Amino acid sequence: MQSLAAIIHAQPPTVVIADEHKLLVEGVRKILEPEFRVVGCVNDGRELLATAIGNCPDVILIDISMPLLNGIDAVRRLRQSGCNSKLVILTMHADPEFVSESFDAGANGFLLKHCDPEEVLTALREVILGRRYVVSQLADVMLEGHRGRMKDSTPSVRLTAREREVLQLLAEGMSVKEAAAALGLSPRTIEFHRYNLAAKLGLKTVAELARYAVKHGIVAP
To answer: How many H helices and E strands in the chain?
Structure first.
């Protein structure tokens, strides 16, 4: 069987891996080589933006629960920047809601960290060929979850991109001043966003906000 590299590229397709767990990154690297060429590994969402926007690899594998900027919001930012890389979520969150959010943000594929290594290769081949891919374990569950959401008339809470950024940093334990410095904003602006978050979500304390962030995959447990 002819390799994907022979079909599409003179050289193997390039991949960047975004995950804070070094052992997992090395494991994924071994799965991908030699069919793909890993050209970068990053540990958090903001480092991913800096690396990917300038280099534009063929594929980026992205964990959802990354420090400083979670994977789904990183996908949104990459798409807004005009990044044309194929974006594949690789996560432990086996929830159809995360699948839907990922594709809404602009992802091309969704994988689970415990899926078979051959499925990782299959997913990357599929997205490079212009197709979407959902891990087989979740494909049917996602369809049922979508049907359930269509029947549910309860409106979901929509946070702005800035509110999600502020929520993540506060949930990760940053103070208002530290979050302000990280985002280049004033402490007063961070307080404003924290007030809006509390009002929208009905959560009064930072601990409650943190639990919400964990539940929705914005920060790691």
So the answer is: 11, 6
The pLDDT tens digits of the residues spanning 106-135 come to: 999 999 998 899 999 999 999 999 999 998
Domains annotated on the chain, with CATH:
4-150 (3.40.50.2300), 161-215 (1.10.10.10)
Residue matched to tokens 């063929």? 58
Count Cα atoms within 13 angstroms, Cβ side, for 85.
30
Model confidence pTM above 0.90: no
CB of 28 within 8 A of CB of 90? yes
What is the model's pLDDT at position 118? 93
Rounded distance, CA 94 to CA 111, Å? Answer: 9
Q: What are 125's two structure tokens?
A: 């081949």
Q: Where are the alpha helices (DSSP H) in 9-70?
A: 22-32, 45-55
Token representation of residue 36: 């793909």
* Tens-digit pLDDT profile for residues 89-109: 999 888 888 888 899 999 999
